[in-house]
Structure formats: structure tokens, C-alpha cells
Amino acid sequence: MHGLTVRLFDPKSQEWSIYWASSAGGTTELPMIGRFESGRGEFYAHEVFENRHIYSRFIWCEITENSCRWEQAFSPDGGKTWETNWTADFTRLE
Question: What's the predicted TM-score (pTM) here?
């Protein structure tokens, strides 16, 4: 399976939309929508996971010139509680 991500910025709303597409489905998923403020990016979407409707969240944080952290979390209760289920630390190669 192959995939790609397309990120689009809307200057009017000052929001980013992150679209994911994979060779498995042949279409784009609903976008994660959000913005960066004070060095932190938060993006949200409604998804179906294991046949349930959930909220999903991406957070980009600890952003420096050479590194950052990404986190994914799911919420089955409309965003009242979040379960972080994936983190990744990125470092720029020199």
C-alpha cells in the first residue's frame, strides 16, 4: 500500500486542511483541520474507527529549528477525553 498527504492553507480562515489518500481506497479521507498558534499545531477530524464514529486529533509540538513531536489521539466521547495512541519524534538530518 502507498499513500500521500496533501496540506492546504486557507488564508481567509487561517486554517490548514490535511488530506490523506492511500492506494487501498483510491480516495482522500476527510481532512484534519486546524492551525498553529504559539508554536503548537492542533488538527481535528471526525472518523470511523473499528465501526465507531470518533474524533481524532493531531498535535505538532516541541517545534524547534531541527526537531518536533507529533501525537495522534482518539476520543470516543466527543472530545471530553483523549487517548494518545501514537507519538513520533522527528529530527532533521544534518
Answer: 0.86
